[in-house]
Amino acid sequence: MSVASTEMNGGHGQDVWSAGEVTVLGEAVHCAPSVHNTRPWLLAIHGRIAVLRECPAVLLAQHDPQGRDRRISCGAALTNLVLAIRSLGWTADVEIGVTGGLVTATVTGTRRAQPTETEDQRRRALSDRRSHRHAFGLPGLSESVRDAVQDALAAPGVTGRWISGGDEALAVARLLDYAARVFHDNAEYQRELTLWTTPCGSGLRRDTFGAEGLAAVGLTTSRTRLPDEALLADRIQREGVLVVGTHADETRDHVRAGQALEQAWLEATCRSVAASVMTQPLHLAEVRTGLAERLGLVAVPQVLMRFGYPTEPEVVGNP
Ligand SMILES: Cc1cc2nc3c(=O)[nH]c(=O)nc-3n(C[C@H](O)[C@H](O)[C@H](O)COP(=O)(O)O)c2cc1C
């Protein structure tokens, strides 16, 4: 956790979280997933109010020119913050405000209330959640696991839709293949991606990238081996691929998509199901609208999530 990003009001009365509790909140936020691992937020604590602000200084002009992923990332961090406040035994009342296009989420611990079992389990999963960008093994997810993950997406206006059947898988494979080729050949895009990539430590870690298959086309670099469409379609059918969408496409919708994404990811983690997410292909308008058209979605696709059981050990650690 960045100490500089966490303000304490220094009080020692009844109405403030202790230094230890502030650390718990900061650590929970720190381990949220974020676009290119940029953690584009600032956390401040005043009394029993936690304020999470979108940080506009994180600019990904090539990958995320509209700041959509930044807001989704803030939503994921907000989920972690709420779970941490609940784990401290407080209610967590959330208000999302938008000023000058930037999001501020204010979470107030108003009164004492024990966390539910689900909240407790998901909070315990915070530090185990990580991106798994390697192939998943067989068997795939059972219906009950799919239902639990999809149900966890509960956030206003957010929906989830599993890709199912050969026709849908092939249609999605074609779109992802197209997007992968566009990003693969875009020198400016690749320059920016390289700038954010680190061999180890706290950036976007190169050793966590997928070399081939579905996860690899979800974060295409100039080195990615582009699979053929049939192979990709086969992977999509074998892996559980969930399209997370929102009814509208405003700033708050992006935050809610992020909140939902993280709830689903944590639910999967609780069940020893690994996941990775991809927004890269959706930054091409023709892919975003093409996906909605091919799947007959009313919702605006915001994120693709893939779930499954790992076949090889994950790269550990997101310091
Ligand atoms: C809004 C958002 C967009 C993301 N987009 C992608 C993506 O397109 N491809 C990908 O492989 N990972 C993507 N990620 C995953 C991040 O790269 C990952 O969360 C981050 O590097 C931290 O690693 P961790 O998930 O293992 O903690 C995204 C995450 C978020 C929250």
Automatic annotation (TrEMBL):
InterPro entries: Nitroreductase-like (IPR000415). Residues 119-129 have a biased composition (Basic and acidic residues). GO terms for molecular function: oxidoreductase activity. Residues 110-131 are annotated as: Disordered. Signal peptide: none annotated. This is Nitroreductase domain-containing protein.
